[in-house]
Amino acid sequence: MFDCILIANRGEIACRVIRSARALGVRTIAVYSDADAGAAHVALADQAVHIGGPRPADSYLRGDRIIAAALATGAKAIHPGYGFLSENPDFVEAVEAAGLTFIGPSASAIRAMGLKDAAKALMHEAGVPVVPGYMGANQDPEHLAGAADGVGYPVLIKAVAGGGGKGMRLVERPQDFRAALESAQGEAATAFGNAAVLIEKYIEQPRHIEVQVFGDGTRAVHLFERDCSLQRRHQKVIEEAPAPGMTDAMRAAMGQAAVRAAEAIGYKGAGTVEFIVDGSKGLRPDGFWFMEMNTRLQVEHPVTELITGVDLVEWQLRVASGEDLPARQEDLAIHGHAFEARLYAEDVPAGFLPATGTLTHLSFPEGARIDSGVRPGDTISPWYDPMIAKIITHGPTRAVALARLRAALEGTQVAGSVTNLAFLGALTRHAGFARGDVDTGLIGRDIASLTAEPPVEDATVALAALTAAGAGQGGALEGFALWTPLRQTVTLEMGDQRWNVVLTRTAPNWTLRIGARELEAERRAGTWWIDGTRAPEAALTAAGRVSVFGARIVHFTLPDPLAREADAGAAAGVVLAPMPGLVKAVFVTKGEAVVKGARLAVLEAMKMEHTLTAGRDGIVAEVLAGAGQQVEAGAALIALEDE
Fold first, then answer.
1. Rounded to whole angstroms, how far apart are CA atoms 223 and 238?
2. How many CB atoms lie within 10 A of CB 558?
3. What is the pTM of this model?
4. 537: helix, coil or strand?
5. Residue of 207, 232, 251, 296 marked active site
6. Under 8 Å CB-to-CB from 543, ≥6 apart: which residues?
7. Which of 186, 122, 194, 197 shows the shortest CA–CA distance to 155?
């Protein structure tokens, strides 16, 4: 076993690797950028080395600096985590040339699976079923359009390099093909430096089921499947293991196909073979096809760990240090069911835009596994993936594991940034998902109901007012007055909503008047009860901010009575950056006429491209930002003339 390893990554996965290494008695070296100097993975490691600026290209993608850090600190091996350099064969060769061990597959194995078209051809030769499509080298738009016609619509355009849904477009009609191709190629070139795409038949009721494999370079085993069908725009949201509705026959067929795939390329370490499954007629052995292989540890690996009892990072370290596979196929079995929900800083009402912010309050309930790379007080940076945590639960049955996930989400408390927490909770309450009726289109079909924001209940407003007033905590209402009850008015705001709540101390309780309604509040053993119902937790999470937690987190603002209101019409006709990012392209010039919905610019942020459009018809008065310019959230990019 190695005595010291370097982790060439950051955030949640770096913390995850450090914990398993420490359990084996292995020292760990972290690397960090300017933006991560105070990050959790830096504090957790035995030693940390600065490697550059906040841009990934200046730090976490600088293989030379990472290798130099490993040599300088005495590390014997490098663990890549996932993302960044984890699937870069040139980095693997550089690591080995420096006399270090790469904790992962060989460069040749990564190359074999690195391009989707070549990987599918290889898998076809190995007897692994593949989806019909075009995987040739001819990238002429006319040729690709003809290939799509031959495959038959609907089709998927997919970047041959990379993953994560980038460079992928669904095309349902021939007349939409050219625009989708241009968009996919542009995004692929930005994300992977390779604009090449392939064309693939789109499965109408698809499920995304993947198989965890582990090899020693010669032999491989599988650790069963994960269902990752709950996706939005090809990004996984909630994963589970095992797959609902899986039969023994199909599990055996998929497992054998995945092992064949791994052994065909001499795979070493942890990897995932992803399959697209036709769920229209139930799961059957002839209804799955190879999509791609991820030659690294997956984000969703914890659900496999919980149902098998295997620490996959420990296995990675042991096999990379020269040990044989820690288990035979017959030694592995499924125990219960597990779910993982990805908690992100993102603005769901604004279209799931990535968000930033300082986590002024962060708390997770007991009873769930939490894999996180941030702590209270940390800042979600615009430079990296905005994941806050992975919330993972396990139970003897799927129903129990799902109930535990629902409870864990309701017990999670976050303030300081908008998140997708309410959206995740809505998914756990979705009737179809609860039945196991999942496919990759579920979220898209029901997005309106899943993202609907119900009205704020009076009890929630009352709890926020009690918290703001310090009631029950020695606040102003804790004293006494002669002849008349103590009374206080608390004003709360949320968006364009405003409440004036009158609190009256009627010892030992409180009465709250919200409009024409009165509610009674009582403090019992440190918990509020409002109109006889136990209330969730609430806290002053920042100056002038009150947050009420629970199934839906509601953030209220305490308005400053001395603050002057801004001119509500000042920003009319101005297109603002919805988040910090890089302006990739501007499509208009001063004096140009535009119509509502017209593309004005493209902003790259959080590894994704976001198209900004005109909110109304008008004439471009000013172009305030140019391509290549880094902008902050709220920066004015394009202004239209006044109507």
1. 19
2. 17
3. 0.81
4. coil
5. 296
6. none
7. 197
